[in-house]
Structure formats: C-alpha cells, structure tokens
Model the fold of this input.
Amino acid sequence: MIKILVDTLGGDKSPVVNIEGAIKALNQIADLELVLVGDEKDILEKLADKKYDKNRLSIIHAPDVIDCNDKPTEAIRQKKESSMYKCYELLRGDESVNGMVSIGSSGALLAGAVLKLGRIKGVKRPAFCPILPTMNQKVVGVCDSGANVDCDANLLKQFAVMGSLYMQKAYGVENPKVALLNVGVEEEKGDLMRKEAYALLKEQNTVNFVGNMEARELLKGDVDLVVCDGFSGNVLIKSTEGACMEVLKLVKRTLLSSLKAKIGALFIKKDLYKTKQIMDYNNYGGAVILGAKKTVVKGHGSGNAESVYHCIEQAYNLEKNNLRQAIESELSKISE
Done:
C-alpha cells in the first residue's frame, strides 16, 4: 500500500479540486491510501456525497494555509497549523508515509523539502521537473524549472541524471534523450557554464545526451528531457505555456468571428476538442521535486480536479518504481 498526503489548501480552487482529485485517485488505484490535510470540517462536508473506500482515507486537521504572499522560509517554519507544515511534519516523522501532493506555494513547498526533509545522499540541490505535452503526443521534462536560479555545470549534470531516471520511472521512457537548453545547437555555443556542462554530459555514460537544444524546439518531441538552470527553465516553461494558451484563445475567437467560421467549427469540433485535451496541462500532473528524501509533487495552483488526480498518480508511480532509491544509487556510482 502506497500512502500519500494531499495538501487540500493553497490552490486557486482549493479545497474542492484537491478533494475531488483525491477521490478519483482512490477509486482508480486499488493499493493507494490517502491522507487529506486541511480544515477537517470543510473536508468532511465535501466528502459527504462522495463514494470511496473509507478504510483507505483519513483526515489531518490543519486549518491554516500558506499562500503566495507569505515568505516561503518563514512560513514553513512558523505557520505550524498550516496544511503544508503538517504534511512535512508527517512526511519527516512517519515512515509509513511515502509522499505528498500540493498545489500551494511553490516557494514554501521547496523550502519545506530542503528544511524539513533534506536531500537524498549525493544530491547537491533538489530541482523542479515539470512535464509538458509535445506535438507527437509524448511528453518532455524540464529540469530545473525554478528551484535553482544560479547553477554551475556540475549541477546541470546532476539534473540530467535525476531527470533521466524520472522519465524512466514515471513515464516508462527507455534511454531518455537528454538535451541542454542553449542559444544554438552547435557544441561551441553558449556561455562558459553551458560549454562546461556540454563537456560533462558528453562524458556521462548513464545519460543519453543528444546535444544542445534551442527553446523553439521544446514541443517538437525530439527529446525527452531538457536540462537548464532554474532561471532559464522557468522562463521557458511559462513562455511556452502562455503562448499555447493565447494561440488557443485566438483560434476560439477566429472560429466565433463569423457565421461561416461558426459553421465550419461545427465540422471540426471533435478534432479541436482532442487538440485542446492534448495541450491541457491539467492532464499531465505537476512538477516533481527531484532529490528530496521523499516524493513531493507540486501541481498547478490554478489546476482542476483532474490535475490533482494526475499529481497523485505521479507520486504513486514514483514510489512504486523506487525513483528515490534509483537516484541515490546512480549518484553514488558517479561519486565513486
């Protein structure tokens, strides 16, 4: 039985989507146990009309919330009645708890992973690794996407190792193709850090390094993992998501702009819906904090119940496939 904590507070639509996503996960995964952490009265009210196995769900009362206006480090230390704080206390102190899912503050979640859980042996710094859909209906990971704004070449190499194992364990990608985000595809391109990282990755035989990649190639589906510093990765993720959302809005406006367009839209409605589903981030879970001692998944703050469900599914799969143990084993070989 895999036991996962679900932080029910902190998101734009919490706690409704958190609870609905949790119930779907319970009903879909037979050997999953969930602990809902948040305002107990509110949780019980929203569970009243739901059907689920009550033997595999429990509640921890934590009425306070850490929001995006709180300073992350201070909040994770001082807001002891918050749902996120209680989750980390349980993660650290209870060996039966395997991981947690939250759609709350990214900064506080990362601070908790570092201060409360600590790192897997050999990990220099934990990193965020979100997933995006590609044009060939696969997925691509981006590591790091915001946890480490300042990096060096050795950190980028470690992100490649952890991210490769993640793509294998979570998504079944055999021998993932790894690219380094850069301003050009040629080996000599980029600043000193990326040139050094290129050389290190080329020599790392446990990583299937395929060279540099420009940002415009992210969604093509030619690579499985993109390695970058947290600053570049965050800009890459947000600009890509923003561009996709605006294009979808433009398509919608165009199809509603005239009677002729509306009639045409009726004939391609199903195909458009399929495309929208492929590009919807809610269908792909969240960003895993790679390198933390226990599994932590950060979902989109504006995510819906489907997003929370996929985040829980992610955490479950990572525990089932022993990602943390694989990272520790691989990094110990490299250090030796």
Remarks:
- Residues 118 and 306 are 30 Å apart (CA to CA).
